[in-house]
Amino acid sequence: MGRAVTLEKVQKPHMSTFFDSATTYIESTPGAAERLALWNAFRSVGLPTVSDEVWRYAPLSQLTLDSFQVPTSPGSFPSSALSDKLTKNASFVIRTIDGFLTDSPSLPSGVTATVVSSGVSLGERSFLDRYGDDAFALLNGASSPGTLEIRVAAKVHVEEPIFLVHAASNSSSFPSVHVCVEVGAHIDIIECFVGGRGSLVVPLSEYELADNASLNLATYQQLNATAWHVARSTALLHRDSRLHQSVIGLGSHYNRSRNDAEFLGTGAENELRTTFLGSGEQVHDFRSHQLHKIGRTRSTLLSKGAVSDHSRSVYTGLIEIENGARRTDARQTNHNLLLSSTAHADTVPNLDIRENDVVCAHASSVGPLDEMQRWYLESRGVPRDEAERLMIQGFFNEMTDSLPGEVAHLVELEVGKILASTHVVAS
Amino acid sequence: MSSVLEINDLHVKVASRDILRGVSLTMHSGEVHVIMGPNGSGKSTLAHALTGRPGYEITKGSVKLDGTELLNLPPDERARLGLMLALQQPLEVRGVRPVELLVAAGANPVGIKERIREEAELVDLRPELLDRFVNVDLSGGERKRAEMVQLGILRPKFAVLDEIDSGLDVDALGAVARRLQLATTQWSCGVLAITHFRRLLQELTPDVIHVMSEGRIVTSGGPELAETLERDGYEPFRSLSD
Predict the structure, then answer these.
(1) How many A-B residue pairs are in contact by the CB < 8 A criterion?
(2) Within-domain flag for B102
(3) Interstrand relation of A147-152 and A111-116 (parallel, antiparallel or unpaired)
(4) The pTM is what?
(5) Does residue A145 have a pLDDT over 60?
(6) B98 in any annotated domain
(7) CB distance A387–B104 less than 8 Å?
(8) Which chain A residue's Cα is nearest to B80?
């Protein structure tokens, strides 16, 4: 697997400031024994390399852990115009810096936010069982200052969204979040990631929705263009629960976002919408795994992204339907817009279906702007640049239309800003 | 001020085939010219070549609007000088709304939604259909009415209509024809309508009818020419193109 070289690098304490900082932090932090177990698991797994199929698009040769240190306290983070705009009219804003909870306001009745041990999974599977082969998740479990657990009590319907602002300074950070929505409860969460010049940001999130619970979640990643962002989320969906999850990735140098859902009760639904716009040399690497363990569950995935300049993207989505999960309805759609001849997009839908009585569909496309549509706009008097801008924004409209207003507006502005500085090539 | 559109000896190739082989035509503001002709005679090619559609290669000739050569200009500049093509099959542009298209095309944004509503009413189009993305989820008839809404907002000096009547029911055809007729007096719009069918002319009064065959205009005349075509078909005119 080509991991030995990297592993050896990590194991040399005298050469590795990351190693030093991690072991020092782990030994002096509550739960040291559990953290150490995860750290050792990380050491035996080692960082992945591009010879691992699921990491083949990541510029891992440029990732040197020794450039980072595990933070022992929140770094300095003055402010972020983006998060200020996003939360301008917000009533409830929870803030973390480098994964440390720094600001937790009084929350609506029935909602709590507490910090619990990191490296612990929701549901029946243990952390090690779930993430035993995922180096970054193991790093998060070992090095996170703790898991921010947001819990919504049974039957509580929270009217106003809770905002969750994750700021990163310029080293590594391992934010960990659990959202537990109890029976019949509902909450909207808007999450953003900002800052992180030259940083490595490794968020790990789990969402557990009890029977008939619902969660609308929008995650907007707008880290500095020099950051590494390696995120993973897992949703556990019980009977008749509904997760509507939007993930928008515009920032960072390497943006990996893996979003999984496990369907554990009949009637559970997951709508996952992922959006990205690549520019410069960015790599956007989206993964999803919808695991239907139970029948009469529904997953709908829509991914739309564009790549410009020398950027590239990959979408790999797996729908897995277990034997007996009858009347599962699982759909995956992935559209990619190529805005330059040097940009590249891959789309890899995978199906693993072990039951006949299901509806399962996938569609994908990769292509440039439609020349005839552009001509149609031009023939009405729309200058070419403007026609292209309208079409690209139109491509994203389907995604931004479903976002909460505060996020949609900011995403549209940022997309406009990126496009203004990129040269678009149509078919 | 009266405007003039002058097409002179226009030759056009599409996919390496000569389609137009010397089309000449001059029209003025407020006039209605109709081009009729059999399938494959080059009528639609003329319409699309005027607006600079990709893949249409002009090999010879000139098209001037008020003395300015259009053929050297990109499509948007031709449009801004006052030439608009309404398509036989208006394209869907998913994600872009008509109001955005019109403002980007130079329409005054002040009060534009109200003007769009007024224009929609003129052609019996439910205004809420124009809140959808451009031509998305509209029927063929609704799309053509929507093209007329764009025409009413953009107010081109000359409107070129590529078989705007094809696939329209009688009601839609009447609405479109009446809108065009009104445009000729509202802002002296010149109308160049390409059609197979005489029925468009029941509500849109032509000043000149041109018959096209094999890439050329083979004869021109008054409204009475339509009756001749109705009676005798295009066959007698084919020999004129040789």
Answers:
(1) 83
(2) no
(3) antiparallel
(4) 0.83
(5) yes
(6) no
(7) yes
(8) A381
